[in-house]
Amino acid sequence: MAVDPVSDSISENHQDSLLVAGTKYSSRLLVGTGKYKDLNQTRSAILASGAEIVTVAIRRTNIGQEKDQPNLLDVIPPNEFTILPNTAGCFTAKDAVRTCRLARELLDGHSLVKLEVLGDQKTLYPDIIQTIEAAKTLVAEDFQVMVYTNDDPIVAKQLEEIGCVAVMPLAAPIGSGLGVRNPHNIFTIVENASVPILVDAGVGTASDAAVAMELGCDGVLMNTAIAEAKNPILMAAAMNKAVAAGREAFLAGRMPRRRYASASSPADGSFFN
After folding, report:
1. Alpha-carbon distance 65 to 85, whole Å?
2. For residues 121 and 101, is the Cβ–Cβ distance under 8 A?
3. What's the pLDDT tens digit per position in 158-201?
4. What are the CA-CA distances from residue 245 to residues 3, 19, 219, 223, 235 (Å)?
5. Are the CB atoms for 254 and 210 separated by under 8 Å?
6. Which of 170, 225, 237, 263 has the most other CB atoms within 10 Å of its CB?
7. Active site residue 114
8. pLDDT tens digit string along 13-49?
9. How far apart are alpha carbons 143 and 101 in whole angstroms?
10. Of these residues, 35, 67, 94, 114, which one is catalytic?
11. d(Cα 28, Cα 219) in Å, to the nearest integer?
């Protein structure tokens, strides 16, 4: 029976899992839950994205704190998804740590969290000093910390050395949709990392997600790019394909860039030689 190298290669890539804190995930796309028109649309978009890890802003979302209000976990139950509580809206290490402790209580001892400590209301850039302080405290308390940070390779390495299980540099400001603004820095972070690197913030459309993956990132986290699309469910499906395509392109290895043309068919041995 003939061997199909293309099918074999694709099969191998489908077994190429994202490993976070000892758990394997088949999808490298992580999504948020904010800005949708209702909980039904939230669920539909998440299902279309194929995401297995879903991040939830504890300070802004009801996951059981308000007993008489709609509970987000009714549409993204923990038996279907890995819930990733995040500290969005926190501007100090103290608030971020308190929020993670609340999340662990609400989610029955859940330890995987996304840490973000913001430094400014307008830009939503991270406060790196407060982020590092919070990361040290959370790691010491046995949290598994996925951390949002800027695209500084030195800071990224410091957060890894503290014990964060994944480092998540921004591609551009949160909710901006500007795409990967500094691919050189992202690539530098990736090539020096021993933990997963996931682009977090700034993705606007499918090509942005593919670029991040082609740089070698282990995954992409997004919310606004899907939720604010004219058709969020269709965009979620597009992001699913873009992340997968970008990963396969990275694994395949792109052709070298050249200053001049290079003929697809060599002239040697042609009828005219």
Report:
1. 13
2. no
3. 999 999 999 999 999 999 999 999 999 999 999 999 999 999 99
4. 23, 18, 12, 19, 15
5. no
6. 225
7. yes
8. 556 899 999 999 999 999 999 999 999 999 999 999 9
9. 9
10. 114
11. 5
